[in-house]
Amino acid sequence: MSIDIDTARKVAKLARIKVEDDALPALATEFSNILGFIEQLNEVDVEGVEPMTSVTPQRLYRREDVVADGNQPKSVLKNAPDAREGFFAVPKVVE
Which family does it belong to (predicted)? Predict the structure, then answer.
């Protein structure tokens, strides 16, 4: 598939990318090359091939999902504007 200069200009506008007029022919060529590569990928027979997340078979490390305080109350409250007795202190909003 070949992309012309007008299409490249339209794609750049839709992507909110400012492209000078003298750079549009190179951009159109680059878009055409990308679409050509995608067409090559579409020719590959992937019937029966399972999707994978990595080129090496690995199991993801999983830990038990347990609620914890993180054992770091001082570092958590270090950036708080106001902290008292190990908690965030906030202004009273309800009378």
Answer: Belongs to the GatC family.
The contacts found for 3-6 with CB under 8 angstroms, 24 or more apart, are 3/28, 3/31, 3/32, 3/35, 4/28
Query: Along the chain (95 residues), what's the average pLDDT of each consecutive run of 10 residues?
Result: 92 95 95 94 90 80 82 87 90 86
**CA 16 to each of CA 8, 12, 13, 20, 28: distance values in angstroms, whole numbers, following the listed order:** 12, 6, 5, 13, 16
- Helix (H) / strand (E) element for 83: namely strand 83-84
Where along the chain do its domains lie? 5-42
- Quote the pLDDT of residue 30: 95
